[in-house]
Predict the structure.
Amino acid sequence: MSRQVVRIGSRASKLALEQAREVVDALRSAWPRLRFEVARIAPEGDRRKGAPLLALGRGTFVKGVEEHLLRGEIDAAIHSAKDMPSTLSDGLEIAAFTERKDPRDVIVNRWGLSLKELPARARLGTSSPRRSGQLLAARPDIEVVPIRGNVDTRLALVGVGGLDGVALAAAGLERLGRIEEVSEFLEADVCVPDAGQGALAVETRSGDAEMGYILAPLNHAPTWASVTAERAFVETLGGGCRVPVAAYAIPSSSALTIHAAACLPNGSRVFRAVVVSPVSSPREAGRKAANALIDAGAEAILYSDMVGEG
């Protein structure tokens, strides 16, 4: 092996660095004779803190780190799998998906109540139009407020300025040691998670066989199948999709059960589909889920400008 030092690129946020630590700890365990270093990078999405996430687009938090990888300044990059576009930049590939944390969305509120129990006109904050649409579809009598910021910042808003609670990803709370603050874990029939949510993707330059060999012990086969299916779902719907979409593939020994959804951010229209496909063909499973969602009527909103109604 020619490398003695491996440089891993990561966003510089607290959660991203915790994710990097998780990966680097696993690599050090697998390769105790190698030295692993973390390079902190601030991509465009982190600098544009006032922009809504749907306007930024999938991949905004990834590209800045990828530029360092393409220039050879780092050997691998760690991303939240949900942030990655379905089509990678030329010259790059995903070498591993690490074992997934809990992919569900959660709510945290000042009363410790479930979504069903929240009082009418309760105000929940979220950074996600996908969460907003599904929450409002389930509870049209509450108010959803757009917020930005890291996990700690969003949690600190609970009970402040009239905000009663927040909705965010369970995996972030788990990685930051704050999972006990969850009021309710939202199941997929209420709020389908984002494609890739809870999983980490480790990206390398295409053809870098040595890094592929180094990263191979990190790859978790059930997570690889699930996230591959979810990414194929997003890819099948295409870049023209104008509204939030979601997919969550639950693996078993022989099958993937995929929950899929598309919604308007104001919750006025939500389309859902559930498909079961062989786990041996995850990309085909993802395409099947996308087509099932279209067959359920989602095409009425997928490629329209109706997102502005949210």
Remarks:
- The chain has a mean pLDDT of 92.
- The chain has three domains: 5-99+199-219, 105-186, 231-309.
- The CA atoms of residues 151 and 303 lie 31 Å apart.
